[in-house]
Amino acid sequence: MIRETGWGRYRNYIGVIIFAVVVGLVPVLAKKYVHVMTLIGIHSIVTMGLCLLMGYAGQISLGQAAFYGLGAYSSAILTVKFFPWLSVQMGQPDLESWWVWPWVAILVGMVFTAMVAYFIGAPILRLRGNYLAMATLGFGIVVHGIFKGFGLDFVRNITGGGTGIPGVPRLAIGSFAFWPKEIYYYLVWATTLLVLLLSLNIVNSRVGRALRSVHGSEVAANTLGIDTDRYKLQVLVLSAIFASVAGSFYAHYMTVAAPDAHSYGFTASVNLLVMAAIGGLASIWGAPFGAAAVILIKDTIRDVMPKLLKYASGEHEIIAFGLILVLIMIFMPDGVTVWLVDAVRRTRRRTA
Asked: What's the per-residue H, E or C state across 75-128?
């Protein structure tokens, strides 16, 4: 393996710093895009975990939105229902440290989601190809059904059924609240950048090389002494933790956790997969660009379609979105970031 020398060793860190500066200027220079950029940051966290799982470890997942939803519902259930009840039982209904509970809920959601990923991953990851895809799809459908109540009253009492759980509190530290949305934006993107740094370090470490070997050939990796089952399970748990954090941030941002298929159902899982594919499955840097591409394309189509077609509906938007994705996959099969890097290299060769 050829080790980079000089500034090449620090290019990822330099890239993160430049990226942080650009992202930090958005609320100052383009305040109207803060909401969209916040959603891009939240989805980037999930997409980075999916890139590690699919792009590097080669494990197909069609149920990533389930982990995203588990994080959101963990935060909602704990902060809206359990912790207030606990405070009353403790005889402190006006607990001064109430601001701590949402952060505790996020941590509990991470642990709970990691446990779910561990226990379902052990049997599921023994499957291959389409069987693995169908198993993860089934897991996502089951979890989404639980969010909707599954037709059981005691489950609906916990998850809120079809209406979900409103009133999720904002995040705060003491008297300082992460609101308005410009402040919450910085919290989301600070977390996104930390996840980006962590993911880049994993990819460039011995663990990253092991994951790539698992993707290339599990048989060959096993013969080299790599515990493929352990690495696959670990990366699934890590991707689930990323998704849980993003789901919690989304719930505290929207102040509600509702069983919307576009947020936590199969549609959401497909959207996350598309984000990873557009950005580049084997590219951590591609995750934010893939998330941005999908969200911006969908918003643009939603604004443009009514102007092009008088009676445009959601079905027309889906058709247009599908056609755009087909074109991207044809002309940019390795993702937007790889295509841009190749384009820059070609330009340099022509001008050299």
From this structure: HHHHHHHHHHHHHHHCCCCCCHHHHHHHHHHHHHHHHHHHHHHHHHHHHHCCCC
Spatial distance between the Cα atoms of 121 and 61, rounded to a whole number of angstroms: 11
With beta carbons less than 8 A apart as the criterion, state whether 61 and 50 touch: yes
**Alpha-carbon distances of 91 from 82, 87, 101, 227, rounded to whole Å:** 14, 6, 16, 51
* 149 contacts 60 by C-beta, under 8 angstroms: no
User: Residue 26, SS3?
Assistant: helix
Gap between the Cα atoms of 19 and 288, Å rounded: 10
pLDDT in tens, 171-190: 999 889 998 999 999 999 99
What are 228's two structure tokens? Answer: 């493929």
* Cβ pair 248, 109 in contact under 8 A: yes
pLDDT in tens, 37-60: 999 999 999 999 999 999 899 898
The predicted model scores a pTM of 0.91
